[in-house]
Amino acid sequence: EAQVTQNPRYLITVTGKKLTVTCSQNMNHEYMSWYRQDPGLGLRQIYYSMNVEVTDKGDVPEGYKVSRKEKRNFPLILESPSPNQTSLYFCASSQDSLFGSTQYFGPGTRLTVL
Amino acid sequence: AQSVAQPEDQVNVAEGNPLTVKCTYSVSGNPYLFWYVQYPNRGLQFLLKYITGDNLVKGSYGFEAEFNKSQTSFHLKKPSALVSDSALYFCAVRDDGMNRDDKIIFGKGTRLHILP
User: With contact defined as beta carbons under 8 Å apart, do A113 and A82 qualify?
Assistant: First the structure.
């Protein structure tokens, strides 16, 4: 089944404890992206990647890191999480970065930073 | 830079009635418009998109959307609402113009409540 998977789905952690949220897609998509969803703010893009070893900042990149060493994986790293990073996170992928490409979303990771 | 607006935070519709979820956009070039739906505890699912051609776009679950260039709108519609349509709906836009941000921009979302 074609899908985007994220792990973990739920995570409670404490301030400053490094964490990684994994994202993997099995559709051979070139483009991958991370979003955070906050009430009243909709989806905001954190980072995106147009292909392996190519990443770029989105709207809210502060406090996050990403890497794209393989086409299928795009992990999101929080080196020193803070409470303002408590949010619902989504990974998404699309075949390419062309204007009309449809994005496919993972199920989400709900992160709470205490 | 492109932008998208969903003017209603919430829309309530009785089951069986037609529904409309509004979306307006601003672009510097040609718009590429999308609707996504989010059910509780799920990721976003693609409903439909407009790239070019026919202004009326049909999508999943009986939804359709009408592209109106003069009004810069892309409203989502369904002739007869179901309780199972209750969800959070997002409009999104990409822009191919010279002044674009090279990414997709999402609206803040509209929560649709279908009342039995």
Answer: yes
